Amino acid sequence: MNQVPLQVNDVVKSFGGGWSASSVLPWRRNGASHGRRVVDHVSFEVRRGEIFGVIGANGSGKSTLIRIISTLLLADEGGVRVFGYDTVREATPVRALINRVSADPSFFRNMSAMENLLFFGRVYGLTAGDVKRRTPVILERLGLEWPRALEPMSHLSRGQQQKVAVARSFLTSPVLMLLDEPTTGLDPRSKRDVQSFVRDVQQSHDATILLTTHDMDEAELLCDRIAFLSGGRIVAGGSPLELRQMVADGRPLDSINMETVFMELTGRRVEDDEEPAEEGEEALIHG
Ligand SMILES: Nc1ncnc2c1ncn2[C@@H]1O[C@H](COP(=O)(O)OP(=O)(O)O)[C@@H](O)[C@H]1O
Ligand SMILES: [Mg+2]
After folding, report:
1. Residues with CB under 5 A from ligand 2 (ion)
2. N or C: which end of the chain has fewer CB within 10 A?
3. What is the mean pLDDT of residues 13-32?
């Protein structure tokens, strides 16, 4: 097996061309025939055992990239390899090596966390015994009290639900973890719990982690290397220290925070949305 956990090679993805709402519904038409490019010639490699961060504002293309890597979406151009396997032609071995946590995980809401984990464990090929043995250990490390794992998911807070999502993704000990904004919208305590769990797993298991976030403190705290994504393009990449050096211009490095680095390298603030206005709204404004 090729030892490079993830190679993203010149990936391009557009939305809105072909059979999309904008081509079928006349009131959604925006005049463009080829759609809007949201991932624009992205390339990077993630090394074994590292936490690699993709940092960008809302709408910069992070989730689209993660969906392409996790075989859920096809790129228009370019390719992705996971430990050497092509995500399109060899999707089955790729799926066995990766797992993904998204910011809005889906569960059976009327079932408890434990019942959900038993169900998904079976989908991943684990026995009920495996799941029952591993779950309490993982949930404890995430700071979710055991009795809560037996209540319906709908009774849990968002932070607690997200912890169950993280637990689910680590049940199978995947070798490449894709964490898509795992802490967005969490309360500070849950955020810290999830962050320290991620770091623990990186250090104690042979796991490689691709993490997206727009939280600069999280990026700084967790990531060995970072790529800044802006308008679907990687505009800079390196370790937090290297990124600081790129903009330092004689200033002492520890006086520059990641937010400043992002702003100077991308020309925008990470808090600002990149989402374009709704096509309908635009039509109203111009019409
Ligand atoms: N299935 C889709 N169809 C059309 N547009 C999409 C689709 N998925 C994402 N987009 C658009 O692509 C852009 C990037 O989205 P996304 O990858 O979710 O960004 P991020 O995760 O960085 O917030 C956004 O403008 C979003 O509206
Ligand atoms: Mg996203």
Report:
1. 62-63
2. C
3. 61
